[in-house]
Amino acid sequence: MKLCIIGAGYVGLVTGACFADLGNEVICIDNDKNKINDLKKGIMPIFEVGLEDMVERNVKAGRLSFSTDIKNGVKKSAIIFIAVGTPSKPDGEADLCYIENVTKNIALGLDSSYKIIVEKSTVPVQTGEWVARTLKINTKGKVDFDVASNPEFLKEGSAINDFMHPDRIVLGVDSKKAGDILFQLYKPLKAPIIVTDIKSAELIKHASNSFLAAKISFINAIANICDLTGADIVKVAEGMGLDKRIGKAFLNAGAGWGGSCFPKDVAAFIHIAEKLGYNFNLLKEVANINESQKKVILEKIRRGLWILKGKTIGILGLAFKPNTDDIRSSIAVDLINMLQMEGAKIKAYDPKAMDKAKLVLKNVMFCKNAYDTAKGSDCLVILTEWAEFMELDFAKVKKLLQQPFIVDGRNMYDLNMLKKLGFNCVGIGR
What we know:
The protein has 17 helices and 14 strands. The longest helix has about 30 residues, at about 200-230. It has about 425 residues and is an alpha/beta fold. It has two domains: about 1-200, NAD(P)-binding Rossmann-like Domain (Rossmann fold), CATH 3.40.50.720; about 215-220 and about 230-425, NAD(P)-binding Rossmann-like Domain (Rossmann fold). The chain is globular and about 75 Å long. The model has no long low-confidence stretch (mean pLDDT about 95). It has helices at about 10-20, 35-40, 50-60, 70-75, 95-110, 125-135, 160-165, 175-185, 200-230, 235-240, 260-275, 280-305, 330-340, 355-360, 370-375, 395-400, 415-420; strands spanning about 1-5, 25-30, 65, 80, 115-120, 145-150, 170-175, 195, 310-315, 345-350, 365, 380, 405-410, 425. The strands form two sheets. Strands 3-2-1-4-5-6-7-8 form an eight-stranded mixed β-sheet, with helices on both faces. A six-stranded parallel β-sheet has the order 11-10-9-12-13-14.
């Protein structure tokens, strides 16, 4: 099939590359000329495992191309995916100005040939109605189209695998014709396909992300109780997760959730509910618990060092999760700012996110590796569970630290082993 993906960010670029790898003819559109020029040269705007090779392979095969021309992309394609950003406004509401602008531009490329315009971006319920209305207002003459919702469930760091081996595919459609075409597009993935109305599909996305965020906040709240009682959150989570009704996934206590999805989607869902007349107090508390988790980490550092002013804190991990360079809503970035406000000096290292971190963090000494970060630091704080941090030579780390103090913000390590080596070490709920 001939596809147009509008928005060459995390979702759009991965979606376009994967569809091309399945044999479709895909054109990715973005209004950032520099990004498009880089993509044409094989330079990726993001780090995602396997993405660079997949893009290169499909560009060479002639199945994947890049452009800034929306109108031309729409005219050449049968299915148009909208994958632009929906950032949060100050009150938490999703800013849909990019969706509206793109929709107006799509309208300019519509003609009498049938096309499906698909919401791929995470949008509030009822957005599909506005997309359809905007298209109708901005088209002239006879046009033939359907609007659909196809929410994405890609995890940064494993996005390609998530696309190619999904738990489920959700198709929100208002016509059988659109449903049948999209069903055929996704059929090669051999995954369960849920066909529903557009509003239900839009809600499935927000409800899914909010539930996962709630699960993390819940286990972090339990971890805080473990800290107060001397219980072990690792064992508590294991005992809970073996219950098939609960499951093990997302029961890892730590510094909290961040990234481009959970914070934005939770805030947007709270705002959506309020506009509809429902006070989503449960979700508000999910967000509050996550915000307070940063203070939990800060307090653990303070307890180990007493006075933070003038102390040097080594931070390992700046990306909000491993296998990505994304620092949006990163716990590490927020904690560094909090530590600096207390007068602490910061050294930091991340395997992939350094360049992006340098754009938002000031007065931070960025280091070449974990050992360089530990050298002369009064405390080492682990905030992203990168695999390379599991391989550290802790005898060497201890010699490099000013004080043998480690705060394991992701519960990566065997604390008993570290204590035997002479470290003062704390985890989350342990």
